[in-house]
């Protein structure tokens, strides 16, 4: 019995040490593989980031977007004028009205926050007030509008209603509207010129840095001038359309 006990102890210890050695040996490649996978993944992400950050040196979007914004703003500004004796309701809605705020204070708000503007056809606009106290400040704000000569009248049957007759345009009012439309056109034209100048600067810088071929740069500059000329024509056409509408009345 005493001789067999050490043998049994030896038999149980040897496999334990072997298993430990085996476990340590088997984990070493796994750790190495994880490091390799992580490094490979980082390299792929870095490469993807570089590709995503690349920018086309001959991109025209800044110019085309600038022209589109300029023309849209011009048409919006012209629509708020009074071509042909017709009054755009938005012009009335956006008038600033000074009303009481609190016990002693005052604030300036848009008319459409105090009332509803309803075109009645012909040369009349109806304004439905939210409160009777708004009648006086709204009337004062409309009478102060330049070149329109508006004179709102409170409806005899409804104290919350203002009737606004639109007077026919005079030579003075036509000239004033034409002057404002021309100023809006010049502003839009300047916006187009600035967009073209910024893009030209960008293209020239790309050429100096040798990131584009000379032939490609030359073609891009020619295309830039064509896009700019088309944009300036759109600006001029919008102004001419407003001018003709004014002269028809």
Description:
The structure is a single chain. The protein is an alpha+beta fold and about 250 residues long. Among the domains are: about 100 residues, Topoisomerase I, Chain A, domain 4; about 80 residues, Gyrase A, domain 2, CATH 3.30.1360.40. About 60% of the residues lie in helices and about 15% in strands. A 4-stranded antiparallel beta sheet has the order 3-4-6-5. A two-stranded antiparallel sheet has the order 1-2. Helix 5 runs antiparallel to helix 6. The chain is elongated. About 15% of the residues have low confidence.
SSE diagram, text form:
Layout: H1 4-52, H2 61-79, H3 89-93, E1 96-101, E2 105-110, E3 115-119, E4 124-129, H4 135-143, E5 153-155, E6 158-165, H5 171-208, H6 214-248
Antiparallel strand pairs: 1-2, 3-4, 4-6, 5-6
How is this structure best summarized?
Helices cover 62% and strands 14% of the residues. With 249 residues, the protein is of the alpha+beta class.
Estimate the strand proportion.
Answer: 5-15%
Gyration radius, rounded: 38 Å
Structure class: alpha+beta
* Biggest sheet architecture: 4 strands, antiparallel
Order of helices and strands: HHHEEEEHEEHH
CATH homolog superfamily of the domain at 61-77 and 171-248: Ribosome-recycling factor
Name the average pLDDT: 80
Low-confidence stretches: 5-28, 45-53
User: Level of helix content?
Assistant: 55-70%
- Mass-distribution shape: elongated
Regarding CATH, which class of the domain at 61-77 and 171-248? Mainly Alpha
**How are the strands of the largest sheet arranged?**
3-4-6-5
Question: Can you count the helices?
Answer: 6
The CATH level-2 architecture of the domain at 61-77 and 171-248 is identified as Orthogonal Bundle
How far the N terminus sits from the C terminus, by CA atoms, comes to 128 Å
- State the total count of DSSP E strands: 6
Q: What's the CATH topology name of the domain at 61-77 and 171-248? A: Topoisomerase I, Chain A, domain 4
């Amino acid at each position: 019995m005493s001789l067999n006990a050490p043998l049994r102890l030896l038999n149980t210890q040897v496999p334990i040490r072997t298993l430990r050695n085996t476990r340590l040996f088997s984990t070493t490649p796994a750790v190495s593989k994880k490091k390799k996978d992580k490094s490979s993944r980082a390299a792929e992400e870095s490469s993807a980031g570089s590709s995503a950050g690349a920018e086309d040196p001959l991109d025209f979007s800044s110019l085309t977007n600038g022209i589109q914004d300029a023309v849209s703003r011009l048409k919006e500004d012209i629509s708020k004028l009074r071509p042909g004796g017709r009054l755009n309701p938005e012009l009335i809605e956006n008038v600033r009205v000074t009303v009481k705020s609190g016990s002693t204070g005052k604030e300036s708000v848009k008319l459409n926050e105090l009332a509803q503007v309803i075109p009645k056809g012909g040369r009349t606009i109806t304004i439905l007030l939210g409160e009777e106290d708004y009648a006086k400040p709204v009337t004062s704000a409309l009478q102060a509008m330049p070149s329109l000569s508006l004179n709102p009248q409170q409806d005899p049957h409804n104290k919350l209603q203002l009737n606004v007759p639109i007077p026919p345009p005079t030579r003075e009012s036509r000239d004033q509207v034409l002057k404002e439309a021309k100023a809006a056109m010049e502003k839009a034209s300047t916006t187009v010129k600035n967009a073209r100048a910024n893009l030209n600067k960008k293209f020239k810088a790309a050429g100096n840095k040798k990131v584009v071929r000379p032939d490609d740069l030359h073609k891009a500059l020619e295309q830039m001038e064509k896009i700019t000329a088309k944009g300036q024509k759109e600006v001029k056409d919008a102004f001419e359309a407003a001018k003709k509408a004014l002269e028809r009345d």
